[in-house]
Amino acid sequence: MDKPLGIVIQGSLTAGLEIRLHPDISVEDMRVGKFLVVRGVRADFFCILTDVCLGTSSPRIMANPPSPDDDFLQMVLAGSGTYGTIELAPMLMLNREANRNEVRSQKSEVRSLNGKNGHDEEKNSSKLASFEAQTSADIQLLPVKTIPSHFSQVYDAQERDFRSVFGWEDDPHRCNFSIGEPLDMSVPVCLDLHRFVERSNGVFGKSGTGKSFLTRLLLAGIIRKQAAVNLVFDMHSEYGWEAVKEGKQFSTVKGLRQIFSGQVEMYTLDPESTRRRGVRDAQELYLGLDQVEVEDIKLVAHELNLSEASIDNANILDGEFGKNWITQLVSMTNEDIQMFCDEKRGHKGSIMALQRKLMRLENLKYMRSTCPKNYIDQVLQSLKAGKHVIIEFGSQSDMLSYMLVTNMITRRIHRSYVKQAETYLQSKNVSDRPQQLVITIEEAHRFLDPSIVHSTIFGTIAREMRKYFVTLLIVDQRPSGIDNEVMSQIGTRITALLNDEKDIDAIFTGVSGAGNLRSVLSKLDSKQQALILGHAVPMPVVVKTRPYDQKFYEEMGDRDWSEMPDAQLFALAEAAKNDLGF
Ligand SMILES: Nc1ncnc2c1ncn2[C@@H]1O[C@H](COP(=O)(O)OP(=O)(O)O)[C@@H](O)[C@H]1O
Ligand SMILES: [Mg+2]
Q1: Residue 101 has pLDDT above 60, yes or no
Q2: Does any ligand 1 atom lie closer than 6 A to the CB of residue 493?
């Protein structure tokens, strides 16, 4: 066991623990987000450091501090007269004493308890973490229900402690994926991807903090571990093919299609732009005006500047003309509109406004009046075949196009998933089971704003959770703009630096017991650090994000044997033969 860092001097379950550091430990080594273990009498408490303070035992020292070059007096005071304290938020308890059998029976007890009220709990709020070890080790993890007694010692977390809770990435019995490392250790922090894809998740953080990189990591993990199929609405064209990396020099990183070439398909709304960027085999995607339903228009009412009355009139037109309502409307003359209104009780002014505004749709590059081929079906077929689909917007990435297309495609795919899921529920036949689908959307607050969330497909998906095998991965820099109810359904929250109080509050919506993590969130580095909490991790944890670089591509991709130097290839072949016993 290594050296203790300090002892518990006071604390409470709600406010956390106060630790007095031992004299030889410098406060300067303690930083917010650090991972520490308090060894209590019966349990180990895994904690996150939330604050650092300086203390003095007597006001006289403050009134009369030693002079800066009086090293001797400073040393005399250190540890007795002056000391450092840190505050810890206990996040998880690990019972040390229970023997194996006991653990097993307690485990099943916990499980049956979870089973009984699991449902209610899920409905009302999200959990801070899963509190389940991501290994097959016989250990029992518990949410913190008590605190360690006075003068318990505090230690740096050991790699062993960490592994037993977070598991191994290459564990064949699990779907663990390493998302990074704790701040001051080099051991992987794994997400349980099976649990991850079961619920909708969020990646949050200010602009430039690494959301796109994190998202790319997560998508790569899902592809590599085959946890689900992905449908990505790639607003800024950065997931499929080469994306720019900020830095002193201009450099790019690989997109998912380059790492997993056979498994990822790209579609584009702007074929020229995609081709210019060097993607040769992206498939074109067109939508027909006859595919646009009133519901689709409703979501972009704000972008098109449509009034309630216009939407009502759109419904009347739709009732009259069916799926050709937009083409019909656009070709109507003023007299036609007048006649229509006389007959069908539409409102002339609203219909004319609607006509003017829907003309914008006609001019969109990817919009045809009718499409000979149903491209959305094609996307669906790709997904059914287990291919991951990335849809690029190129120059068509304004909010109107992004929302319209994302909504149109998602609504139809969701509809098909509901059908499939219902077939499966009836037949219970494994071959009917739809493949879990994860839909990635950016600028999510636009789709999940409280004023529209009840009428959009995304609100529905977030709320119905795993029922139809479709979940969301939402990427957003302004979580406070997202409806509270949706936020509280988010399973796992991966959050990079946020400064805005409202945004920080939003992250903790619906999770109880996370209050003292607020300070951690606002003190993260501005890049490549994130706080992870929720369903897919055994306990909340701060990570340095896994670098997305050459090494990562190699770890994710299948090895390209043809490009490997001969010597290395022969050595590996030899090792493989030995494994097989030749
Ligand atoms: N995991 C990572 N690996 C390598 N570089 C990263 C990583 N995360 C962030 N970065 C750096 O931070 C920059 C900003 O990240 P990005 O994901 O584009 O931010 P955001 O999407 O939040 O605006 C990147 O260009 C890159 O240089
Ligand atoms: Mg980004």
Answers
A1: no
A2: no
